[in-house]
Design goal:
Elements lengths: L1 E6 L3 H13 L23 E8 L9 H4 L20 E3 L31 H17 L4 E4 L6 H14 L2 E4 L9 H9 L3 E3 L9 H14 L3 E11 L2 H5 L7 H12 L11 E8 L6 E11 L5 E11 L2 H19 L4 E2 L1 H7 L9 H12 L4
Parallel strand pairs: 1-2, 1-4, 2-3, 4-5, 5-6, 6-11, 7-8
Antiparallel strand pairs: 7-9, 9-10
């Protein structure tokens, strides 16, 4: 059993919780959608959620099986989930919600109590930390998953402190740089805790497709001159990102992930990667537009355009299931600090960027304990 806590019971958490139930008891020959059914002796159903944290009063105090289907969640329903006896606890807000979101209808955004705010005293922060650390310890949490909204810098750092104090490994699924930050990574290493981060890649998502195509240009001797990636969606992630001030780390994460596949990075003016707009009726469907302009043999022009449409949250859930199990293997083996291979394979902004083919080999060796 792998005891897991979730921070942020949004669409990604909903798909993950539902996915664990969906794959429960399935045989390996009937599995579609997972990179590994059995990973180092652990199957998806070995993941057990024991607590969760959120600030939306429509979810707090509900059972996790009920909270994952509450608004503003809008991801695809995969399956029914039985009562889990896992209460969603009140989290700590800080910068976990973009203020402009509170001006939208309740079915599109968070509903929070007035006393929750991002301007808190040190005493209030310490009191909240003691409460949350106490819950993590009481539930014997092994791995904490960070699913906070993009731009939640202070809130993420708060939960990282909680994880370190409670002795939890961390899966950092958002573009706040923790595993790839030397200072934070060293603290996890010193505390004997593994971490995988930062900013999860989807199974077949915009960034992984863009990376592969960029590497294809490089490997086949073509010259990529300029490229863009534009994304639209209708979930709270896209609504949150209408505040461009919260996008700095996201744009850095996605851009450097693609740039890392080139031996000579493109000049900043020739690459644009980032969210484009919020389209409410798209809900959790994400549409990505990629354009790549370059030259092939004898400078012959080469243009590529691609449109990718995916359900955003299920697209990352299978990757998270693998990452959770890799962290459990690391705990079993008493490894600490950033897991280089799994971070490079599962994340957009790992401590060390590697070609995906190379990272995959390292992950397979890690699973087999041959590293």
């Amino acid at each position: 059993m792998i005891k897991v806590a979730i921070v942020g019971v949004g669409n990604c958490a909903s798909s993950l919780v539902q996915g664990i139930e969906y794959y429960r008891g399935k045989s390996s020959d009937s599995i579609i959608g997972l990179m590994h059914h059995n990973l180092g002796g652990y199957k998806p159903e070995d993941i057990k959620f024991v607590t969760a944290f959120d600030i939306d009063k429509r979810k707090v105090n509900l059972d996790l099986s009920e909270a994952i289907f509450q608004r503003p969640n809008c991801t695809k329903k995969i399956c029914d989930v039985d009562f889990m006896n896992v209460r969603v606890e009140l989290g700590f807000l800080l910068d976990g919600v973009a203020r402009h979101m509170l001006n939208y209808p309740e079915d599109q955004t968070f509903v929070i109590d007035e006393y929750l705010n991002d301007f808190v005293s040190d005493d209030e922060k310490e009191e909240a930390k003691e409460r949350i650390v106490g819950i993590l310890k009481e539930k014997c949490v092994e791995i904490l998953i960070n699913y906070l909204p993009v731009g939640s810098q202070h809130a993420t750092e708060f939960y990282m402190e909680c994880a370190l104090s409670a002795g939890c490994a961390v899966l950092n699924c958002i573009p706040v740089f923790i595993a790839s930050n030397t200072k934070w990574e060293r603290r996890f290493e010193e505390n004997g805790l593994p971490i995988i981060g930062d900013d999860i890649k989807s199974q077949i998502g915009a960034t992984i497709v863009h990376r592969v195509l960029t590497k294809l240009f490089e490997d086949r001797g073509a010259k990529l001159d300029r490229t863009y990636q534009l994304n639209t969606g209708g979930n709270t992630d896209f609504l949150n990102m209408l505040n461009r001030d919260r996008l700095t780390s996201k744009k850095i994460s996605k851009t450097q992930s693609v740039q890392s596949q080139l031996s000579v990075p493109l000049p900043p003016e020739n690459i644009h990667i980032g969210p484009s707009d919020y389209v409410p009726w798209q809900k959790d469907n994400k549409v990505c537009f990629i354009r790549m302009e370059g030259r092939g043999f004898a400078d012959a022009p080469l243009d590529l355009e691609l449109r990718l449409s995916v359900e955003d949250s299920p697209n990352s859930a299978g990757v998270a299931i693998d990452a959770i199990r890799c962290l459990k293997l690391a705990l079993d083996r008493k490894l600490s600090g950033a897991l280089i291979g799994p971070s490079a394979y599962f994340m957009k902004s790992p401590p060390k960027q590697l070609p995906d083919s190379e990272a995959k080999i390292i992950v397979e060796k890690f699973i087999e304990n041959k590293t």
